[in-house]
Amino acid sequence: MTRKILTGLSSEAYEHPFDRKALASLQKMPGVSLLLKKINEYGIDRLLRLQSLGSDIRVTTRNFPELHQALVEACQILDVASLPELYLFRGRGHISTYVIGVEKPIVGINLDGMEWLSSNELLYVLGHEIAHIKSQHMIYHQMAFVMPTLKNVLSSTTLGVGGLVASGMELALYNWLMMARFTADRAGMLACQDINVATTALMKLAGLPNEYLTATVIEDFLLQAREFASNNFDSMDKLTKILSYTEHQLSWVVMRVGELLKWVDSGEYDNLVEQKKTTIPEEAEGWNFLTSW
Questions:
Q1: Which of 12, 137, 150, 205 has a Cα at 20 to 30 A from 128?
Q2: What average pLDDT is seen over the chain?
Q3: Per DSSP, what are the bridge partners of residue 98?
Q4: Burial, 251: exposed, middle or buried (Cβ in 10 Å; 0-12, 13-18, 19+)?
């Protein structure tokens, strides 16, 4: 299929309102600026980059041309001028990806991702990671990436990480990371420009191999996603925040596909692809960290 190059695309045009609200709440939390300062002092950005350079295989046009081309195409479609480096790391029995680097971003995908995903699905997955760069949220994304280790390192210092966690800062950070996934999913959708491709890519990310992705399985999954998205979770908001804290153990693919379906049904996705004049949606109710406790 011929995909449209979305020249002049702004990340705000597809930013999920839950992402915007969660980030605003996170930025207001006491201790966030101090923690960012400590991350900078410890050279976390440089350390994470060295880990990729020293452990993973850099993807080029020579060694893995199809994988490299998917990155190039995703960046072109999403109007990301500076191509991040792409690295391939060992398989884990499931698809795994990452993005690090505030100054010089690196995108990583494991062997399972390269082998399981079609060329179209690679556009979705790589577009999802590129969105974190395009939205200029890498500093917060990276903070969440290193938080478990950073807590241990700083546990005996005067920073008082325990107090920050008790105050809800860490929970706010992981809640935002979950909400930012909704924005990144939209970018992945814009990169592949096919809701069916986005759906199967997410199902594979949840661990379902290609041989199980029959028409019936996909149809039932979409019905499940729409049913989930129709629920009202206002009364469960506190529980949702707690679950978002441990979201790295959960794929949340049903919820994420449900959000993508709502976006497509609203007409906002088609307007962006057709590059019609759009307005930034009003902030949605719910998922507000500051008012949900």
A1: 150
A2: 85
A3: 108
A4: middle
Nearest to 123 by CA among 59, 85, 67, 177: 67
Kindly report each contact of residues 274-283 with a partner whose C-beta sits within 8 Å and lies 24 or more positions away, as own/partner.
275/4, 275/6, 275/7, 275/8, 278/13, 280/12, 280/13, 280/15, 281/17, 282/17, 283/17, 283/20, 283/21
12 closest CA partner among 271, 281, 287, 288: 281
- From residue 215, give the alpha-carbon distance in Å to each of 11, 15, 202, 211, 218: 33, 31, 15, 11, 5
Cα–Cα distance between 111 and 233 in angstroms, integer?
37
Mean pLDDT on 227-245: 65
In order, the DSSP letters of 219-256 are HHHHHHHHHHHTS--GGGHHHHHHHHHTGGG---HHHH
* pLDDT tens digits along 89-112: 999 899 999 999 988 999 999 999
Tell me what pLDDT residue 164 has: 57
Q: Percentage of the chain surpassing pLDDT 90?
A: 59
Show me where the domains of the chain are located.
11-273
CA-based torsion, 276, 14, 134, 115: positive or negative: negative
Q: Are 114 and 125 in contact (CB under 8 A)?
A: no
CA angle, 135 as apex, 11 and 110 as ends, to 5°? 115
Residue 5 — pLDDT band, cuts 50, 70, 90?
very high
Residue at 203: amino acid letter = M
The label of the residue with tokens 């350079």 reads 53
Please give the Cα distance from 132 to 188 (Å, whole number).
11
* Contact call for residues 162 and 287 (beta carbons, < 8 A): no
Both tokens of 263, joined, read: 């976006």
